[in-house]
Amino acid sequence: MGDGLVEGRHLAGGGRGEEAARGDAEPGAEASEGGEVRLSAGFDPGERAEADARFGGGLPARKTDGRTDQAPATADLRALATRLKTAPPASPQPDPYNGIPFDSDTEEIIAGYARQLSLTDVRQLAHAVSEGQPVTIEYVAASGSRTIRTLSELDFDPPYLHAWCHLRNDERVFTLSRIHGVLPG
């Protein structure tokens, strides 16, 4: 590959001179002695100086059909890498349905099954499940009757919650979608 000049810029190993000599160069390119290539059509030295000043000597502007396509400014890759390294972690991920970030996977799972619960109730129930603490819930049975129950020894098995029910004094299984309110136990 030979060295070449494009619009007055030197390209190390650009190979444009050989292409122009063979006739493979882009339209408007002319080969000169020594294998240099110069674009003759539409080149304005004033635009070149403006582009060099604007882009800090970056890629030159190229004129095609009366329009100027300017190369974007080069990004400082080291500064970008530093910003990415020091960025705070993106977790917890927000729930795609309402945009609220969850503190744990348990919260997200409970919110998915118990859509009628507020975020506060979801967090209270998830905390009780994670920490093994008792919790009081308002539960609506399949028959439609509402009861207030205090639960302990929680075992989370989505979409169910296995727990010791203090009202019935027995182990019971509760469906998450039927829990309508949560209070600390």
Please explain how this structure is put together.
The chain is elongated. It contains 5 helices and 11 strands, in the order E-E-H-E-E-H-E-E-H-H-H-E-E-E-E-E. With 185 residues, it is of the alpha+beta class. It has a 5-stranded antiparallel β-sheet, with helices on one face. It has a two-stranded antiparallel sheet with strand order 1-2. The chain has a two-stranded antiparallel sheet with strand order 3-4. A hairpin with a 2-residue loop joins strand 8 and strand 9 (160-165). It has helices spanning 16-22, 45-55, 77-86, 105-113, 119-131; strands at 4-6, 9-11, 29-31, 37-39, 62-64, 67-69, 135-140, 146-157, 160-165, 170-175, 179-184.
Keywords:
single chain, 185 residues, alpha+beta, disordered N terminus
| Biggest sheet details | 5 strands, antiparallel
Number of DSSP E strands? 11
Helix content: 25-40%
| Parts with pLDDT < 50 across at least 5 consecutive residues | 1-32
Overall mean pLDDT: 73
Portion in strands: 25-35%
Structural class: alpha+beta
Encode the helix/strand succession as letters. Answer: EEHEEHEEHHHEEEEE
Q: Report how far apart the termini are.
A: 79 Å
Give the count of helical stretches: 5
Write the layout of secondary structure elements.
Blueprint: E1 4-6, E2 9-11, H1 16-22, E3 29-31, E4 37-39, H2 45-55, E5 62-64, E6 67-69, H3 77-86, H4 105-113, H5 119-131, E7 135-140, E8 146-157, E9 160-165, E10 170-175, E11 179-184
Helix pairs in contact: 4-5
